[in-house]
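The passage that follows is intended for readers who have already worked through the single-chain material. We present the inputs for a multi-component assembly, then the predicted structure in tokenized form, and finally a short commentary. You are encouraged to pause after the input and sketch how you expect the pieces to fit together before reading on.
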Amino acid sequence: MAGMTGFSREVARRIFAEELKSSNYSFRDGEDQHQYAPSYLLTPTGAKCNRVFLVGTLIEKDDIGGDTEYWRGRVVDPTGSILIYAGQYQPEAAQILAGLETPCFVAVVGKPNLYQTDDGNIIISLRAESISQANESTRNQWILDTARRTLERLSDLSQVRVPPPGEDFTTADSMPAEASSSAAMDAERAMQHYHVDIEHFRQMTIRALSALKSDLSGGAFAEEARPVNAAPVWPEAEPAGKEDSPASSRKGGNKKAASPGWPASDDVEEIETINIKKKS
Amino acid sequence: MKEMVDQIRVRLRDQKIDVSNEDIESRLKKLIVDFRVPEGEARRSVLNYFLKEHGIMPVARASSEKVKIEDIKEAGRWVDLEIKVLDLWEPASGSISQTGLVGDGTGSLKFVKWTKSELPDLELGKSYILRRVVTDEFQGRFSVKLNKTSQIEPLETDVEARSAGRASAEPVRVVEINEPGRWVDLEVKVAQLWETNSESISQSGLVGDETGTIKFVKWAKAELPNLEEGKSYRLSNLVTDEFQGRFSVKLNKTSQIQPLDCDIAIGSVASEFSGALVDLQKGSGLIKRCPVCKRSLAKGVCTEHGKVEGTYDLRIKAVLDDGRRVQDVLINRETTERLVDITLEQAKQMAMEALDHEVVRSMIEGKMMGRYYTVTGPRVDRYLLVESINEMPAVSAAQVEDLLTSLEVA
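Having made your guess, compare it with the prediction:
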């Protein structure tokens, strides 16, 4: 029922960067979809998010603004990275981001934003409502928290029954928008749009947890190594700092270093954008 | 399978349609074997499929059957019901034209009439036969949906429905109310009465018992006597409702009010919430309160007592979020002082030096934002009044191991 009314606060969803980045479906909610209706990003596992809470490592920050400051940061979690933005309309967040020294742990509350480039690529970023420096303990709690929420969504997804083809007229009146619970409804919608490979996201979650596990058992070494190793994940560290569209500069960027802190990073080639033509 | 094929063929032949057994069988198999569709559903679907192929709308033959409410045990069935309208609720969405409670001799359930159905409105207390409504289920509770293919026919005779509703009401404590659509009896004291903003509501406010308080709404149509603030009552046959995670009870025509001689003490049971602190709201930090009513002042003005000389206080208004729900929390001065390691005097000093109260809030924000906390305390309306607050313990390798194991097994 949330989202139907403007005055209830939207829950901040927990989504790993890899999943967030592979989202390409956003919509406005409500009957008439007017311009003030809240907008949502639906992620592949069916998180319908108007707000996201993310804790990770800030590895880059740049002022990409012209006359006024406009800050961009890149935050990584065990599965990938996401861009965050803060400008004149988020003065507190912008001020904090400006003052942070990379690398450091950050907690970000932000609104997901979907941007489509001229060549059809989709870039997901977060417009930060708040940014604060975090510690490792909070970062670990977030990974566990996000793994749990992700698994809940995967479980909802596995309940979705894909209707057999050719039977649509019998179900036309009980439209999908009227499924019995909102989580089930979001799962159904995600399944229809993304044709989700549940196993893929289960593996992603396992990778995130395995990374956390090795961090926790690695003790002092991991403790020391992570901030240092976080940087080589993005060796090309944004030379053209003023460039607004990260798509062009990132495309095909691959990771050279497989750091022990982020074991996930060596098994996939990092592709920053998703081509929607492939998706639909 | 053979039997089902024959049944479908016979039904098709009634409509002068000839389809080969093979065609029917292959379609049935696809549904039942490949897509695990239950047999009944598959048969109906295949029949409708061929009818549609031959240009016959299946509506006229939609196989809804007349049932009693207690017979409704699965979602997605098409049924006819003879019912009485027991209650009408405010629809939460424009896509719903009417919602409420209907009952027959065997029970009651929620109904939803979609706006798109363009069906006439049901009247409270009247009896109807609802044709071709579809059953639905949410968390083990059933409801019926009225859509475009449904029909509503008024009944001359009165459907007996009251008894069932009353029989299922159970005496509960306020704290036990945790789901909508339940019939309950409460023994409570009226804590507050509010201005009503709708003609359909005769009274609303807060009632409470030893375990907590809950909002109540008494419908004008219920034609019940008025409740008085501070008095204790036994309220029977109320129905629970939920809006954005907060519960309320509604008094309708079938409800009863009985004054009690004893005085019920309103108390509260501590509840607990764990989550990340995602917002530190305006009005946190160093604030001024009205010396008369203790309300916080906005620009030196009390909403009740006008411009007053305020007294300083320190508090935190924040939002915790566990990724599924949000919880507003209020933290008083003592706890705030301990939590962020600052006294009221120091906070005043800080604000004075910066010539800005906001610095205190920013300082608290820097210390708390984004961290995971567990809080306990009584819930009052949308706030949890924090009695204890602790940072959540660090994640242990064992916790991660446990989750990983369960994942790899699944």
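Commentary: Confidence is low (pLDDT under 50) at residues 1-6, 166-179, 220-280 of chain A. The first strand of chain A starts at residue 12 and ends at 13. How closely did your sketch match?
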